[in-house]
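Protein Entry — a single chain follows
Next Lines — sequence and tokenised fold
***
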Amino acid sequence: MRKINAILGPAMILLLLIHVITGVFQLTSVIPGGSMIRKVLAIILTVLVGIHMVIGILLTVQTLTACRKTGVSYFKNNELFWLRRISGFAMLFLIIAHILIFSGESGEAFRLHSFGSLPLILSLLLVLALAIHLITNIRPLFIALGIENRVFLKDIMVILSILLLVSAAAFLFYYLRWNVLWSYSR
């Protein structure tokens, strides 16, 4: 299962990067929404995340079973392990919210319900949970893939951090466009 997760990791990160970049362009009106390729890639990413989630749950259950058998959990010593699990679990709900927020489409034009405060908060929480999950899991992923180059690891972390920051800014821009700019045009 860990090998499958190691293969899923880079595929999910690549699809996430494409999703974030095209999403930023879409939210800032650089490109129009509703692209069929973007939709297919999002569905593939969702399926890979689902497989990753099932594997994560199975591995967590194995860990909890071993802790119960030995009678020792070392919870304080395994904070990073639990941070990874909790951030992944939080993302489950936030991804569902993200799909529900951005699921409206009408004809060729991308349509969605009013992007108010709650969708903004949920979107920013998704970015935060993604940042925590990616940053805490990138080193174990590199180890699983046999990559020992620390400079490359730092480069990936910087790129992911910048993209997540830009995505948070795009959500904020989109919120302002819906709630400030759009209200003046009515």
